Predict the structure.
Amino acid sequence: MSAERPTLAVWKFASCDGCQLTILNCEDELIPLAGAVQIAYFPEATRGVVEGPYDVSLVEGSVTTAHDAERIREIRRMSGTLVTIGACATSGGIQALRNFADVAEFRSVVYAHPEYLDTLEHSTAIADHVPVDFELRGCPVDKRQLLEVLTAFVHGRRPRIPAHSVCVECKRRGSVCVTVAHGTPCLGPVTQAGCGALCPAYSRGCYGCFGPQDTANTGSLAARLAELGMPERDVLRVFRTFTAGAPEFRDESRRHTAAAER
Amino acid sequence: MTHKLTSGDQVLKANPLARVEGEGAMHVVVREGRVADVELRIFEPPRFFEAFLRGRAYTEPPDITARICGICPVAYQMSSCLAIEQACGVEVPEEIRLMRRLLYCGEWIESHALHIYLLHAPDFLGYDGAVEMAADHRELVERGLGLKKAGNALMALVGGRAVHPVNVRVGGFYRLPSRAELLALRLQLQRALDDAVATVGWVAGFDFPDFEQTQEYVALRSPHGYPLEGGSVASSAGREFDVARFGDFSVEEHVARSNALHARLDGQTTYVVGPLARYTLNRAQLSELAREAARDAGLGAECRNPFQSIIVRAVELVYALDEAIRIIDGWHGAPEPAIPVPPAAGVGHGATEAPRGLLYHRYELAADGTIRDAVIVPPTSQNLASMEEDLRAFVQDRLHLTTAELTLRCEQAVRNYDPCISCATHFLDLTVEQA
């Protein structure tokens, strides 16, 4: 192994570990990957630590504590390229549901001694705290897309990750449109591709876990969902789940708050 | 990070603790030759699932609670479905139960292969991690990865994807795989089964420290075989009770400086869930091939050495593959992928065996299906108190070791539990202080 292999660090913030696991799920590519890059810091996989700085850092998870808000700045300082992976790191994740609620009440629902906890009012994306070189979406990220991103940064090029909607992938896959054919509510038209249009292939509507696509017309889709008979509170909920903190989905869900409370 | 204090006292630390899922630390303080304090600290920040489930629809927990853990999402999906179906007074038909069990086998195969080969074996063979281990034992690591891949392939077929499957719903599935799709996986599973049997033989040859747990073991017991997708609760002290009474027995307390809740039986007895508990309480339910592998590995009627959990996980790996093949061979389809589950006001309880132990959910629903209250008790929070007890006993007998060696052994003692800190946060960093 040459000493010039780029170094890779993997960091965790508030998350389920599923995106990091996706690295280990590259069963055929893991050993070759470890030959192409030096895995310098990845505590979920190894107790070995190579001191930074690091050429590429992958960051999983969202910022939910004051300590983590500080830690991400340190990581930015010691990283050449910083790539965020997954819905938590790119939009605050499911834990961003606290952004729409009273955290003090959340604490007391779950914990007997809320005073033991260090937690912020909001769960936020990494890019809200430091400049990020690339954001890879998904809850969880897609394995093939993750490998594309790593390959791109090792070779010094931009990753080829489309920002169009799930609908494009559905057409390419030859799946029948679940909304047109069965009237099944589907977030595909406003959700970024990357999963391979998985849900429609399993006869269910997309639930938006890759977050908004680049030109998401959420208002138009919301109107369509209402036509399909979805109550306002459910329209609110579908935009406010796995990527609730993504601006387009956040704003759309807010447009339904008042109506849902009636 | 470890250091000796000038007084001769000692502090052992691991921060963060490596090769576990999630963020935690271990801190052990030894003063005047006695273990003074053992603390597993959970840094994993709280995410408040039980709070934000309130007000959500009863159809959402399978997708939402999967996000508690990327390693065992199926466990969350299965326990939540059972609890909600019970609240609504519905029980799924046999075919759907079997397809759930098949999906669950996929998760056990993936998670156990990950833990055995990538997270736990490096401790026994003296490597920092599996990638370092691959430099000397490439074919072994590849075998582990192949096993893991077989589990993921099963999850991807039945669940739609390996992490956060999309195909699970209250009442069943969105789409059932065809017999042809299932049979296409059979060869890969059959090869993996041979590798799993070889895995049992391999890990049985490791050096295990002498150590015996005295805690009560708790696992599900099921009429449908070795427990995965349901059952009632049983313990090594002879307790047997319905899952609905789980909340009366297991009491969670919130310990200072930890974002995880510690669970105890009756609020006082520490207990252990996971492979050792399942094996000890359900060995007779294993398949012939898995029982034979256990016997060849030298396992008796019970296993109380947590370091040998790696053997039991390998035996369970054999079982999960054997069972998956059995289900596939017997599969003749189902009339519908799901049954209707109309909402009803009520309370429901659900418990299933996550790879790392019993996972309990309870939901209280309003008449329109709105969730009024949610309680989730993950396996790792049930094991936290026992992990601390194990460490206390383990360190006390090994104070002659160097600090670095002792720290490594303590980390291993924690990894015995395959702790999932992401789950238990509602878990770990190792610090041993020798004072």
